[in-house]
Amino acid sequence: MKKKFVFITIIGMLVLMITGILFWHFRNLNSSENSRKFDVGKSTINKVERQDIHIHRYEKALFSINKNDPAPDLQKLADQYPEMLIGDGVWNDPQMLEQLKAYISDPVIVEIYNDVQKAYPNLKDIETELNTAMGYYLNYFPNESVPNFYSVVPGLNIEMPTVYGYDNDIFINLDMYLGKDYKYYSQIGMPLFVSQRCEKKFVVLDCISKALVYKYLPDKSLISLLDYIIYEGKRMYFTEMLFPDKEEQDIIAYTPEKYEWAVANQGQVWGYIIEKDLLFSKQSETIRQFVDDTPFTKPFNNVSPGRMGVFIGWKIVQHFMENNPDISLAELMKITDSQTILNKSGYKPKRR
After folding, report:
1. How many angstroms separate the CA atoms of 230 and 222, rounded?
2. Residues near 296 by Cβ (< 8 Å), separated by ≥ 6?
3. How far apart are CA 345 and CA 158, in angstroms?
């Protein structure tokens, strides 16, 4: 089975090359700490107008082509979908056509595709949530246009972001949202703490936190741990503002138990960072320890969640916005001085 998936991964990557998929560069808390009670920025919301979001199902179109003579159908797809999905002239390359036919005919890939269709016969629920989120988005950024959304099935490539974007297009890998117990996740070596986020409820959140938000994070070299946690905190806060009714644990993709630990022990983690003089550390190992996607945060026990630096950065940004109500979401995203955000946040979580 492992050999099978090696083949699938290779072919999957070829398909991505064939279709020309590119994705946005995935760049390199007290009583008020216990729950999200921040209404900051929402005063700028006058009326949230629902948008007419439609997710274009590229995977259906791709898997419906004539396998015996794919060239004419691929040429038609090129007229309907962005060049980032289907490269110009693919239908004229015999080698690529053979690779593509092998991919969409592979029994395991076809099974995964069929499982996606069973789990997502339509995407109306997701579109409804995106409609509301984009309404908030246009309130905060009235001069922007709503992104185009596309669903794809690249074949369980765990090296890719589950959602990614390019220009004003956002692409959703639906085969990465088949539920934490989906049989192939464990077979390809996906850790449980990762597969727990392969649920439907994370699709809309990931569209923002893994794609759209990067349009507004400044292109600044991140040097210290503080830089990284504030950067990630802004990413979480941006997502929160577009989904004000979502639970915090879902926004950061923690289980209820991991979220409770983070809330209760943020003072302990923050105290450790300060006492060990790590806040301005430029050591990659230190930064990865608090920011990278891991099952837990060292040096704390395995009951702790990973990415505690992301959680703390989010809390700092929340406090900053609460204490500086004149700053808009757009203005927040442009601030590159992490020290300023920390100093003006007043963030001082209690140790327990």
Report:
1. 10
2. 302, 303, 304, 305, 306
3. 36
CB atoms within 10 A of CB 342: 20
- For tokens 């990931």, name the residue: 206
Contact 80, 57 (CB under 8 A): no
Proportion of the chain in helix, strand, coil states, percent, rounded to 5 = 55, 5, 40
Q: What is the mean pLDDT of residues 58-74?
A: 92
Amino acid letter, residue 341:
I
Q: How many CB atoms lie within 10 A of CB 1?
A: 9
DSSP assignment of 68-107 equals SSHHHHHHHHHHHS-TTTS-TTGGG-HHHHHHHHHHHH-H
| Nearest to 33, CA basis, from 309, 351, 246, 329 | 351
pLDDT (0 to 100) of residue 342: 98
E strands, the chain, in order: 55-57, 148-152, 163-166, 169-173
Q: Select the more confidently predicted residue: 39 or 115.
A: 115
DSSP-derived 3-state class of residue 42: helix
Strands (E), 157-271: 163-166, 169-173
pLDDT at 143: 95
- DSSP letter for each residue of 308-336: HHHHHHHHHHHHHHHH-TT--HHHHHH--
**pLDDT score at 235:** 98
The residue type found at 328 is: S
Quick: pLDDT tens for 256-279. 999 999 999 999 999 999 999 999
Mean pLDDT of all residues in the chain? 87
Q: How far is Cα 279 from Cα 225, in angstroms, rounded to an integer?
A: 5
* CA–CA distance, 39 with 325 (Å, rounded to integer): 9
Residue 351, pLDDT score:
85
Query: What single-letter DSSP state applies at residue 164?
Result: E
